Amino acid sequence: MGRHWRPASLNDEELDRQFLAGVAAEAAAAAVEPRASSVRYDTSRRTLVLQLRDGTFVAVPVSDCPALAGLEDEVIGAVRMTPSGYGLHWDSVDIHLAVPAVIGSARCRG
């Protein structure tokens, strides 16, 4: 088990270069894409309430998220946010949604 898989065509320098490029790409995306600082589920309104890193609050009806259709409130309420604030996850049902996509659906309705 002590082995780490690596494509034979990649040497340590190339792996380091790709890693650093990925870190830079993430930093650039985080500067322009909305990221959440918190998320909660409002059962009375059946909405996901996200606070974005810029302080903005966005409430998204669960009905706008087809992946969550038909799920019980207890399941939806178990939402967790990734450390980067980019993703929302529901582990018990293996659903993963990107914050920009979720809030995009709310902003498109005007």
Helix content: 25-40%
Quaternary state of this entry equals single chain
- Going across the major beta sheet, what is the strand order? 1-2-3
Class computed from helices, strands and strand pairing: alpha+beta
**Nearest-integer average pLDDT:** 86
Residue fraction in strands? 25-35%
Short description:
32% of the residues lie in helices and 25% in strands. By secondary structure, the protein is of the alpha+beta class.
Walk me through what this model shows.
There is one protein chain. The protein has helices at 12-32, 73-76, 99-108; strands spanning 36-42, 47-52, 57-61, 80-81, 87-90, 95-98. It is of the alpha+beta class and 110 residues long. Strand 2 (47-52) and strand 3 form a beta hairpin. The longest helix has 21 residues, at 12-32.
Index terms:
110 residues, alpha+beta, three-stranded antiparallel sheet, elongated
Strands, helices and their partners?
Elements lengths: L11 H21 L3 E7 L4 E6 L4 E5 L11 H4 L3 E2 L5 E4 L4 E4 H10 L2
Antiparallel strand pairs: 1-2, 2-3, 4-5, 5-6
